[in-house]
Amino acid sequence: MPDSERTFVCEHCSKTIRIPYNLPPTTAPCPNCGQKVTSPPPPAEAKAESETTAEPRPISGRSVESNRWLLPAGAAAALLALAFSLLFVSLNKKGDEAKVLPTLEESEKSGNESAPPPLQPEALREEAERVLRNFQATSDVASRANFVIGGDEIRPEMEEFYAQYPLGEEDCPHEAFGAVPLSRNDFMRGFYLMAYDRPEQFEMSEFFRPIVPLSVQYGLEEPDLVLKTEADLENFVAPALRILAFFRSTEKGMKLDWHVYVQTKHRLLHRFVQQPEPGRKGDFRVVVSQDLDARERAGETVYRLADPANYSDYAKIAVNDESELGRVLSVLKWRGKALSGFPVRNATVRLAWSEEEQPEMRLDSFLCWEFLNLGGELGNWKGEENP
Fold it and tell me: Domain segments of the chain: what residues?
């Protein structure tokens, strides 16, 4: 990195941002995630401030010696603070339950993102593992709903879902999930993320397949059904599986976000895109970015809505630039702009297939920025336009 540059980490996406060395504190969108972030002061300025505060200065023209009477008062204040902290600890030990993290409402009201989190990452990880272990161990939907965000409200939806998909979790044991770092802002809002990542798998016996005759290899003969089935390696591959398990602190303890979990595990967005059905609708948590498409017409922009765990699962939607949503999504445009990266944002959307016999996919509703139940609030995009 040149001496004329320095770097700092975005508090939202935890990615590195490169800026001029002497740039003063400046607020601007992050080139990686698009969220507003303020750069730190130059090292020379920060050093000058620390030196200024390190040396005691006269107060109201009096010398430092004349203020020595303040030292005993400072010591007394420190002792008083220590006494209160010990009292606070003793009272907490007497309580029946301890909160793992502040609720979203408490975090938003406090507005104090610089305060240290109430639990260390190790304790937070243990709590998330406990919730995931209990969630996977359940054998009925009613019990499983106790471990998810808004379980009472979405229980009918869960029952309808598990009538079509298996309830078992043998293919993704909780021991194989690993922690994924989040930004400090998400951590202070009570969010935690774990992921399961399994590559494509093969059995050794699957490599002992029939040898395809040269006449078939060169297209002189058509393979029979048995040969075509047994010789095709793709028929024996266990596909890659990536699952995101988001957790959020609530008044009833830490809970799992069920929607993101089942969407990524069962690749629901992929199924929706690959199986057109007139009038069919579905809500999805997606990563939105501008895309290129030869079918794009003048006055509209094509956006890619990708699954947050499986980026190969996506839908392309054309949006009118002059519409309200088009102006809001314009913050994600990168063509013709000098950007160091492609701007992306998380969102929750409702996709729908049209009613025609040969249906087309459309964006039925843009529900909110961020994932619903994980920071997203319905309609939070309205009135937000790119300046």
Answer: 5-54, 121-201+238-264, 277-376
CATH number of 121-201+238-264: 3.10.450
Residue with tokens 């800026």: 19
Rounded to the nearest 10 degrees, what angle do helices 258-265 and 151-162 cross at? 20
Q: What is the pLDDT along the chain (387 residues), one digit of tens a residue?
A: 455 678 888 887 778 887 877 778 887 777 777 777 888 888 765 555 444 444 433 333 333 333 333 334 444 444 434 443 333 333 333 333 333 333 334 434 444 433 444 455 677 788 999 999 999 999 999 999 999 999 999 999 999 999 999 999 988 999 999 999 888 888 888 899 999 998 866 554 444 455 667 776 677 777 766 655 555 555 555 677 899 999 998 888 899 999 999 999 999 999 999 999 999 999 999 999 998 876 778 889 999 999 999 988 999 999 999 999 999 999 998 877 766 677 899 999 999 999 998 899 999 999 999 999 999 999 988 876 654
Cα–Cα distance measured from residue 6 to residue 248, given in angstroms and rounded to the nearest whole number? 34
Overall fold of domain 277-376: OB fold (Dihydrolipoamide Acetyltransferase, E2P) (2.40.50)
Residue type, 279: G
pTM of the model: 0.62
23 backbone dihedrals φ, ψ, rounded to 5°? -65, 125
List the structure tokens of 325. 């949503």
> Fold identical between 121-201+238-264 and 277-376?
no
